[in-house]
Amino acid sequence: MSLTVRNLSKSYREKGLTTDIFRDLNLTIESGSFVSLIGPSGSGKSTLCNLIAGIEKPDKGWVYLDDKDITARPGHVGYMFQKDLLLPWRTLLENVTLGCDLRKMDRTCSREEAIKGLERFGLRDFTHYYPDQLSGGMRQRGALLRTILFGQSTLVLDEPFGALDALTRREMQRWLLSIWQVMKHTVLFITHDIEEAILLSDKILVLSKPPARVIKNFEIPFPRPRDPELIFAKDILPLKTELFHLLEKLT
After folding, report:
1. What is the mean pLDDT of each successive set of 10 residues along the chain, which is 251 residues long?
2. How many Å apart are CA 119 and CA 225, to the nearest integer?
3. How many CB atoms are closer than 10 A to CB 238?
4. Of residues 244, 246, 49, the one with CA closest to residue 157
5. Pair 111, 125 in one domain
6. Final residue belonging to a domain, choices 100, 126, 151
7. CA nearest 140: which of 128, 149, 131, 127?
8. Is the previous residue joined to 225 through a cis bond, with omega within 30 degrees of 0?
């Protein structure tokens, strides 16, 4: 499904002062595409995720999946936060099926799908482990699987790998690429990492400072499937440099 944000405005009032985060923001993510959103700190990336996911309500404007208005209506997209947010009293299997349970999906079918997913994610041997028995990368894989099993074709991923070390982050990028190649979700991916955005995306959208707007749209020219080794290739240097200097001007 295509994801469209139309004339979206959002402000916050604190201590008598009003801050406009967005003012008539517009963007479209085509069905089945992978789009990364980058911008300076405080540009409203996480707020935009919350608005798309229906967790917050805009002051004005709309969010659409295809032609369906989902503004301020949770549950229409799969949403993965910066932290894994696995529940410590539930096993890995119970955590990844949480969304299925909340949606009252058939329990037998959802567990079967979860076990298949755990196998694909390299987590089959940790099915009955609790979150504190898992590494950071394992927990993030579990959180990603939970998001996918939620059953929506559109995913919003808010810096899901930001807290991971470099090697684990690279492993997670590899996992995400392999999964997206098969399932072709529509993905909005928030990141501060320019190399990560180039590696994963079809497009990169750059947000300005608040009131934020899309100031540049980069089409990524590298063919798929992509290998994480791409980030070491000379071919990405001009694009990487342009993105870096653009973000530098925005800080």
Report:
1. 93 86 93 94 90 94 93 91 88 85 65 84 90 90 86 87 82 85 90 93 94 93 88 92 92 79
2. 22
3. 9
4. 49
5. yes
6. 151
7. 131
8. yes
